[in-house]
Amino acid sequence: METQKKKNVELKNPAYYNNRELSWLAFNERVLQEAFDKKNPLLERFKFLAIFSSNLDEFFMVRVAGLQDQVKVGFTKPENKAGMTPKQQLNEIAKKTHQLVELQYEALQNTLLPKLQKEHVEFVKTADLDTNQLDELERYFEEYIFPVLTPMAIDAYRTFPMLLNKSINLAVRLEDEEKRDEEGQKIAIVQVPAVLERFVRLQSEKGSLKFVLLEDVISFFIRKLFHGFKVVSVSVFRITRNADMTIHEEGARDLLKEIEEELRKRKWGAAVRLEIQQPGFDDVILDYLTDELEVDKKDVYFIEGFLDATVFFNFYKQMAPTWEQLVFEGKVSQLPVGMETGKQIFQKISEQDVFLHHPYESFEPVVQFISEAADDPNVLAIKQTLYRVSGDSPVIKALKRAAENGKQVTVLVELKARFDEENNVQWAKELEKAGCHVIYGMTHLKTHSKITLVVRKKEDKIERFVHLGTGNYNDQTAKIYTDMSLFTSKRQFGIDATNFFNYLSGYTEKPEFHYLSVAPFTIRTDIIDLIDAEIRFQKKHGTGRIIAKMNSLTDKLIIMKLYEASNAGVKVELIVRGICCLRPGISDVSENIQVRSIVGSLLEHSRIYFFNHNGKEKTFLSSADMMTRNLNNRIEILFPIVDETIKKQVKTILELGLADNVKARRQDATGVYHYVSRKNDEPAIDSQKELFRRAYQVAEDEE
Q: Where is the Polyphosphate kinase middle domain (predicted)?
């Protein structure tokens, strides 16, 4: 391009990109910052610690595990953006993660637990209990814990046990009381049972709560498991295993069985991380475990206090109902105007396109849409993609009922939805038993699109109703994820939906769509064409503007095109919650690009792509982030908003996100994020709170 030649900018320069894995860690650091935020209620801060830990578990099980595999086979080629080799990435990941974990436990031990103690809730050690409390604990141990424990000796006949992924274990060093020599030295493993409550509650004064950790109780009474031996030390540890699945789709006669087999293997993958509890960990045990598990020293994490902070999810659930002052104020999703319960949803969609913004507006109309279709005698067929659903899904129930009512029901269940594979295998079996036609998508591609088609007979005509969304058909996550839905009965959307499902389920050439853009075929090229159009409008009229909101941005071709747009003077404003490999604010590269991330009480999940188009604004929603995996390896849908009123709604939501100065962080030219600063006279704008306020206001105005 002419502008580039003048400036002689090499847009592939690794210095202009953030490494994907380190950018993800930067995102998880933003999650951790919420645990430090004094404006968040106390129990919510504990929950953010749990989210941070849960995120980190998945990161090690998949991303770190993949890099370790590359190193093991001698792969040394740098990744294609920031130019780091697998080994360099692992070293930087370890350095950053150790820092973050240290911060996490500093927050827990020095801030959150003392604050909890002021609320008369305390976690105590067995060493600090009085005689009466220890007697109470011993009775509990004998009756409830001891019968469940299984000590696993390690000797010539009994090798080191296969320990379950993410399990907490005790390594016990023993000494035979009759043999004081080296032969009398023994090691045994005791797994902390996941079926028991992790927090053991003690009798305490009225108005206060005292808990002891289950592993602390077991450690204190461990001698009862090893009569005739002296307990030299008890070391508490936790392992994380490689849980990435290798699905051999080519040649697999039954994908369902292939995935079930891989799920069994997942529990026993190679160890990728070892967490050990301090103080009190035995150095002899440390050397023994790192040798047995083949864990590199940099992947050993010394934890001051609680192992596995994901336990605070359960703690939050237990405490929240009675400690309402320590959680966020409960927000109720509003029914959209004109979608009141009782009004036939098909009638409403026939009249006009309907837009929903979850969870500010209820997910119930989506459930109602499928439920009414299941029971409506005029509905002939329902076709739907399912990626993730809830445990007791009303959507699944409606689809089963529809099949039992004699309707043609086709469900594409994505069996390869990471960490939901087991649930989806079960749902697939249930749907098939109910009479649904279940398909599993296309070889080597995950079906990540969110679409439902209902075919209905009205007098002597056929009408088609389509639901498209940015999020999953999951009624539970719809309460905590921000997503967008569109209902339409427009004829060309219906034709597109029909062709989309026929393409997935049968043998036919890729169809031409009126409105839909589908990955891995056209989304990238369509987005690039839209950016090129903004560049042309900028050069001719000076009106180039792009706003894009997504979970992650990693695709190099898209990033380079955004750099090109920036150099042409196009104003680019990005709201990227998680990974962002693009670096903004670099002179002659990205000086016209801003990147912000919003991490708040709700998980920002909607994908919105806005192009000014010289005043003839174009707005798209999508199931897809601008990630290489989404654009190359997944079936995704990008769809336009054609209703002018809805366009304005979506743009208002985008602009509110750009105005957030409470929960937004801004990325600088070095890739580091900082809270958005505001002047003293500027009002505080928390976009999520404001969107709830507006939803409440609309509902009140309708009353």
A: 133-315
pLDDT of residue 461: 92
Select from 233, 220, 226 the least CA-distant residue to 282: 233
Q: What is the pLDDT of residue 267?
A: 53
Q: What is the DSSP letter of 519?
A: E
Residue 481 annotated in ligand binding: yes
- Rounded Cα distance between 603 and 484, Å, is 13
| DSSP result, 254-285 | -HHHHHHHHHHHHTTPPEEEEEEEESS--HHH
55 appears as a binding residue in the annotation = yes
- 320 in Cβ contact with 327 (< 8 Å): yes
* Alpha-carbon span 469 to 638, nearest angstrom: 10
- Please tell me the number of Cα atoms within 13 Å of 502 on its side-chain side: 12
Q: Calculate the alpha carbon distances from 628 to 52, 182, 582, 624 in Å.
A: 25, 56, 13, 10
Q: Which of 444, 448, 467, 541 is catalytic?
A: 448
Confidence (pLDDT) at 351: 92
497-524 core/surface letters (b: 16 or more CB in 10 A; e: else): bbbbbebbeeeeeeeebebbbbbbebbb
**Residue 27, token pair as written in the block:** 């995102």
- Tell me the C-alpha distance between 508 and 16, whole Å: 42
> What is d(CA 233, CA 623) in angstroms, rounded to the nearest whole number?
52
**Structure tokens of 274?**
């070892």
pLDDT of residue 4: 42
Block means of pLDDT (10 residues each) for the chain, 703 residues, are: 55 96 98 96 97 96 92 90 96 97 95 95 91 94 95 82 92 83 80 94 84 95 93 95 64 53 61 92 93 94 92 92 89 81 80 96 95 96 90 92 96 73 78 90 83 94 97 94 97 96 83 95 97 98 98 98 98 98 97 98 97 98 97 95 97 98 97 92 94 92 70
Q: State the Cα–Cα distance between residues 50 and 612, nearest whole angstrom.
A: 40
Under DSSP, is residue 583 helix (H, G, I), strand (E, B) or coil?
Answer: coil
Residue 75 φ/ψ, nearest 5 degrees: -75, 125
> What is the C-alpha to C-alpha distance for residues 684 and 703, in angstroms, rounded to an integer?
29
CA-CA distance, 610 to 623, in Å (whole number)?
A: 15
Structure tokens at 268: 């026993």
Report whether 524 belongs to an annotated binding site.
Answer: no
Angle in degrees, CA 366, 381, 466, rounded to 5: 40
**Peptide bond before 584: cis, by omega within 30 degrees of 0?**
no
- What CA dihedral angle connects 280, 283, 288 and 290, to 10 degrees? 90
The answer to whether 388 is annotated as binding is yes
**DSSP code string of 453-477:** EEEEEETTEEEEEEEEESS-S-TTG
Residue 698 and residue 692: Cα distance in Å, rounded? 10
The pLDDT score that the predictor gives to residue 143 is 96
User: pLDDT value at position 482?
Assistant: 98
448 is catalytic: yes
Q: Is 235 helix (H, G, I), strand (E, B) or coil?
A: strand
Q: Which residue is it, tokens 């299941």? A: 374
CA dist 271 and 293 (Å) reads: 6
Contact 66, 2 (CB under 8 A): no
pTM of the model: 0.93
- 132 to each of 122, 142, 203, 214, 370, how far by Cα in Å? 18, 16, 10, 18, 58
Strand partners, 276: 237, 302
